[in-house]
Amino acid sequence: MNRLAISLPGLDMKNPIMPASGCFGFGREYAGFYDLSVLGAAAIKAATAEARFGNPTPRVAETHSGMLNAIGLQNPGVDKIMEKELPFLKSYNIPIVANIAGSRDEDYCEVARKLSSHPQVSVLELNISCPNVKEGGIQFGTDPKTAAELTKKVKSVSSKPVYVKLSPNVSNISEMAKAVEEAGADGLSMINTLLGMRIDLKTRKPILANKTGGLSGPAIKPVAIRMIHEVSQAVSIPIIGMGGVTCAEDVIEFMLAGASAVAIGTANFVDPLICPDIISKLPELLDHMNVNHISELIGGSWKECEVPSLSR
Amino acid sequence: MNRLAISLPGLDMKNPIMPASGCFGFGREYAGFYDLSVLGAAAIKAATAEARFGNPTPRVAETHSGMLNAIGLQNPGVDKIMEKELPFLKSYNIPIVANIAGSRDEDYCEVARKLSSHPQVSVLELNISCPNVKEGGIQFGTDPKTAAELTKKVKSVSSKPVYVKLSPNVSNISEMAKAVEEAGADGLSMINTLLGMRIDLKTRKPILANKTGGLSGPAIKPVAIRMIHEVSQAVSIPIIGMGGVTCAEDVIEFMLAGASAVAIGTANFVDPLICPDIISKLPELLDHMNVNHISELIGGSWKECEVPSLSR
Amino acid sequence: MRKEMVSVVSQKEIARNIFELKVKGDVVSDMTSPGQFVHMRVSDSFQPLLRRPISICDVDLTSQTLTMLYRKEGAGTSLLSEKKDGDMIDLLGPLGNGFPLDALAEGKTALLVGGGIGVPPLYYLAKQLQKRGIKVISVLGFQSFEDAFYKEKFEAVGEVFISTADGSQGCKGFVTDVIKSHSFTYDLLYSCGPSVMLKALEQQVPSASGYFSLEERMGCGIGACFACVCHVNGGLPSDYVKVCSNGPVFPIGEVVL
Amino acid sequence: MRKEMVSVVSQKEIARNIFELKVKGDVVSDMTSPGQFVHMRVSDSFQPLLRRPISICDVDLTSQTLTMLYRKEGAGTSLLSEKKDGDMIDLLGPLGNGFPLDALAEGKTALLVGGGIGVPPLYYLAKQLQKRGIKVISVLGFQSFEDAFYKEKFEAVGEVFISTADGSQGCKGFVTDVIKSHSFTYDLLYSCGPSVMLKALEQQVPSASGYFSLEERMGCGIGACFACVCHVNGGLPSDYVKVCSNGPVFPIGEVVL
Ligand SMILES: Cc1cc2nc3c(=O)[nH]c(=O)nc-3n(C[C@H](O)[C@H](O)[C@H](O)COP(=O)(O)OP(=O)(O)OC[C@H]3O[C@@H](n4cnc5c(N)ncnc54)[C@H](O)[C@@H]3O)c2cc1C
Ligand SMILES: Cc1cc2nc3c(=O)[nH]c(=O)nc-3n(C[C@H](O)[C@H](O)[C@H](O)COP(=O)(O)OP(=O)(O)OC[C@H]3O[C@@H](n4cnc5c(N)ncnc54)[C@H](O)[C@@H]3O)c2cc1C
Ligand SMILES: Cc1cc2nc3c(=O)[nH]c(=O)nc-3n(C[C@H](O)[C@H](O)[C@H](O)COP(=O)(O)O)c2cc1C
Ligand SMILES: Cc1cc2nc3c(=O)[nH]c(=O)nc-3n(C[C@H](O)[C@H](O)[C@H](O)COP(=O)(O)O)c2cc1C
Ligand code: FES
Ligand code: FES
Q1: pLDDT under 70 in chain B at which residues?
Q2: Average pLDDT in the C153-174 region?
Q3: Tens digits of per-residue pLDDT, A67-115?
Q4: Which residues participate directly in catalysis (chains A, B) (predicted)?
């Protein structure tokens, strides 16, 4: 028995760990550091209908225990991704989460149709939450109705399961989650980055050329945990959790909160070997926690003993 | 000329620095460390109509560059605060920001009426954003209409200027800000804490007895900066900025973002002398930046040169 | 109560994950009350952000040296354990109210009951009581032989009984088992340890009067943040005490454990 | 390209806020191409979170020792400056593509132009070019006498011209002033420095062919995050190169500065 195996709609994973979209490129760079076939899955960089350069530089800035990025969905466009990037990942034989973005419904649908038909793509991840693109994305991510409509449209053109990636920059995350669940989403990815900014004292201007950027890294972990804790009790589709994971203990914390799998973003930049390191540490941690199979931990913070936990 | 003096509705401050509500008690403890009269102002702990014990313990947990708290508005009630706590602060002769909280309109109004009539209270700070109290507060903080109505009611019973303290846990912070501005708010305080959670791997339950708590400290600074940057351009009432300030440079960053004064919360726990330390470092920093008066910095990140900053 | 940079004089591991840390500084001259604690920054960065509360275990007023014992557990105490001779530590203290020393007259007997990392503050207490001519009996509970410490030190100031959960040293079981099996005669009980232990004492030695030292997660450590409150026995639901500034030492029975 | 814990051999301040750091490790054996860089964690905590890119300044392959020069500026380089002999540093490298060494035949002349903290990578380059029988002329620009470093080292491998903004050493002004006032004859230009300097070179020495080494704020340092892209001259608006993995060295004129 593989104690780490997790099976989700469209994703048969030998462990719950995947690199997060945008933090892994299309895998080439990390393939120089380790054998990618150890991964549970891999989420590739957002694809848009056309090639995008993204935002001007500087695109990253550091914050306390976190970083801001405003890459702006740079990518070579969906066609080139299918031709040039996906084939590279083939030999590793891991489920691929294809992240899709756009500024209009039609763009999303075009990309969804194309990518879902690619044999290597296991599921789509609908990015309705990129905070760094002016024309679009973010309003899909903050209005439940718009998000639900988009989800429906994408579902109707996709031959693969669709996970919707939620933005944390909302008043009511459960409402968003329920709306896309009702619209047919097969799963959720959460959280994307928090909107943030840093100002340079010398220039007196925002450090990022785009002014605002997405905050990621350990700083946002408590926000992610509370949102997953809440949403996992509000919906019945599985959640791929992410936001500040840097170690095996964090993975367990996300699963106890209610995540069924865990994506690792920013930490890849800090340590390119973080994914395989975490994967190798999980069994020992399960032993230590007296857990037989990692799936037993999913939602463990609220599933049983709801009342005793309140009483302390 | 006092280069640090800032004058806001109801607040004549010799410098822009004040301890944030809930992080300074009613001043007694810090008075043991320094002469409180050096402060620009002081925000005291939230007052409610009746005495409150607050949430069960544990009430605090640490996160990367931040902390979670779920105190739950513990306080002796507005009457005791006026009788027993405010007189202590009298001799320091500093403007007092009286934070008020409640679960119903009537409670807020009662507290507002009482506190605003107290001679030592300079302004009220309407806390519509405490994430740690189930029955109330938070819905006021996420719905513009409810917030505006409450602001109107409190304004109508208050004889002192009213600052509304905004929650960052919203999709559209400018909408909230504009709603309370129209309702008559004299100023804004932002940001309150982000909702967060940590789960203990041993117990498998949330560390905080209240489960969720408010995230504060350096981790949230970029979120605060971007919200103040946005809101200060959307409204014309002044902003008391806060969220993760730990040094004089941070104060400048908040003012460049658009804050007119700056409150320091969590950092008081890390260093009880942080407020006087920062105050004493500001003049040197102004020299270094070639700034004559600190007020010149307010909104400096967007006020001039909007176009050049875009072009990089 | 002040904030001062103190310098590390020595640090060594004296039992499994138990470190003895000695620091030196003017502020130590204020540390005359056993049961008080200090609040220390363990890093210059904000990771971890909050200070760590550690009890005063022993003080040498002449050399202005403070001894602390702590268990290396999480991130904060791990960083603390890396401090080397000469390193400076940002210390706030002494904080809170210690054990009242004049509660007992000369010739009386004090029963000191410590559990695990609750033992350290009792050592300074034991020394002070003995100096005042009070007889000290110490009952110290540990998980196992490897976790036990300061037995000899306590023996120098009075009779000592050890219990270990696994029986590898002293009596097998808990401190309450030791107390039940010996019928100690004493005038006041002073105890510090995990709250399960204090609760057990309260139940199984109901007649005891004396003092408990409590622990609670802290924010400020000085009474400003209301993180560390406890309900008061027989008080209103809104009544409270703060462990950091009203405690950590309370008369037995005063607070709800 | 690998990740390795290297050990600090020595660290000293050689000019105002300029530190020379030597580290040792197996990975140094891979560092044969001047112009490449390494990406280092400066702290065990997440403060700061990201690695810091620093150029390879010199390499001793025999002793597997890497020399880096850096300017202490912000939080990261301040922490780096506190590293002591024997401390271990998590290093990723060598990264990127260095200056092509075989672009010049023996007997040819290379003009090396460095500004401030752009000077370090040129030193390893100068040594390698000289070893291949190429004549090296170095023009090094600094703010002031106090900021200048490695003049003697460069003099050991060729002719050196210094400029300082305040005239306190060498020619008063910028490197472009030195180049304009001397009419150097050279075959290729190699330069590293702030982008204002590179832009000035591009404009004021328009005929020059050669290589520029660029800087850009980085996330991953290995090509995965798209933080460090530049537009390509004459390319489509969506065309780009990554400074970290396609550069940091590019043929003059290839990328939009
Ligand atoms: C008044 C007082 C005196 C103490 N004296 C001692 C002593 O002499 N020796 C000793 O080893 N320990 C003592 N403790 C407990 C000690 O403070 C904690 O073990 C320590 O803070 C854990 O820090 P960490 O970073 O290793 O653990 P982490 O689990 O990483 O700490 C996370 C957070 O929880 C808090 N925390 C964790 N455990 C406790 C606890 N048991 N009590 C209070 N806060 C906790 C920490 O302060 C920190 O804010 C005392 C606690 C208090 C309140
Ligand atoms: C390929 C390359 C080679 C470099 N080689 C050297 C060298 O040999 N010696 C040297 O002193 N410096 C070099 N730098 C610049 C050096 O990386 C920065 O000075 C350093 O990262 C600043 O870190 P800090 O924490 O001190 O400053 P902070 O301002 O606190 O840094 C904040 C963030 O900005 C980034 N950053 C700040 N300045 C720069 C910059 N100029 N370029 C890129 N990122 C920056 C940091 O990496 C960090 O992410 C090089 C940069 C690059 C891209
Ligand atoms: C540089 C960078 C680029 C990102 N690009 C994308 C993207 O293209 N699509 C997407 O859905 N999320 C993107 N994200 C968000 C991450 O996938 C992830 O949701 C977020 O960073 C939180 O996880 P972390 O804290 O582990 O990084 C990006 C994040 C970073 C830091
Ligand atoms: C322990 C604690 C208690 C707080 N209590 C209150 C409160 O009673 N009323 C309020 O408006 N804000 C309260 N806050 C929020 C702070 O005033 C401040 O808005 C927030 O912590 C962000 O600032 P900081 O990062 O500097 O702490 C509290 C914060 C903390 C950490
Ligand atoms: S720890 Fe802040 S009041 Fe006790
Ligand atoms: S720094 Fe990540 S792609 Fe260059």
Answers
A1: 130-139, 305-312
A2: 92
A3: 999 999 999 999 999 999 999 999 999 999 999 998 888 999 999 999 9
A4: 130
- Nearest beta carbon to residue A218 from set D46, D240, D245: D46
* CA-nearest residue, atom 14 of ligand 4: B22
pLDDT-derived band at A307 (thresholds 50, 70, 90) equals very low
- CB A200 less than 6 A from any atom of ligand 2: no
CA separation for the pair D241, D254 (Å, rounded): 9
Chain B contact for C218 (CB, 8 A cutoff): yes
**D78 interfacial to chain A (CB closer than 8 Å):** no
Over range A183-199, report the average pLDDT: 97
Cβ–Cβ under 8 Å, residues D238 and A51: yes
B91: which residues sit within 8 A by CB, 6+ positions away?
A: none
Quick check: pTM over 0.80? Answer: yes
Identity at A131, one-letter amino acid code: P
Tokens of A243: 């936001």
User: Where does chain A show beta strands of DSSP type E?
Assistant: 6-8, 11-13, 17-19, 42-47, 60-63, 66-69, 96-100, 121-127, 162-165, 187-190, 194-196, 213-216, 239-241, 261-264
Range list of H helices, chain C: 75-80, 120-131, 151-155, 175-181, 195-204
Q: How far is the CA of C219 from the centre of ligand 1 (A)?
A: 11
Range of the domain at A284: 6-54+72-197+215-297
Shortest Cα–Cα distance, D69 to chain A (Å):
22
Residue C47 Cα to ligand 4 midpoint, Å, equals: 19
What domains are there in chain C, each with its CATH number? 2-95 (2.40.30.10), 101-214 (3.40.50.80), 216-257 (2.10.240.10)
Q: How far apart are CA B134 and CA A39, in angstroms?
A: 41
Query: Nearest-CA distance from A217 to chain C in Å?
Result: 14
Mean pLDDT of chain A: 93
How many other C-beta atoms can be found within 10 angstroms of the C-beta atom of residue A293? 13
| Chain A from 285 to 304: CB within 8 A of any B CB | 289, 297, 300-301
Contact yes or no for A64 and B65 at CB 8 A: yes
Tally C-beta pairs within 8 A across A and D. Answer: 108
D238 touches chain A (CB under 8 A): yes
- A184 in a domain, yes or no? yes
Residue A24 within any structural domain of the chain: yes
D194 interaction partners in chain A (CB closer than 8 Å):
none
| ipTM, 2 dp | 0.95
3-state secondary structure of B119: coil
Residue to mutate among D47, D78, D81, with most C CBs inside 10 A, is D47
How high is the mean pLDDT of chain B? Answer: 93
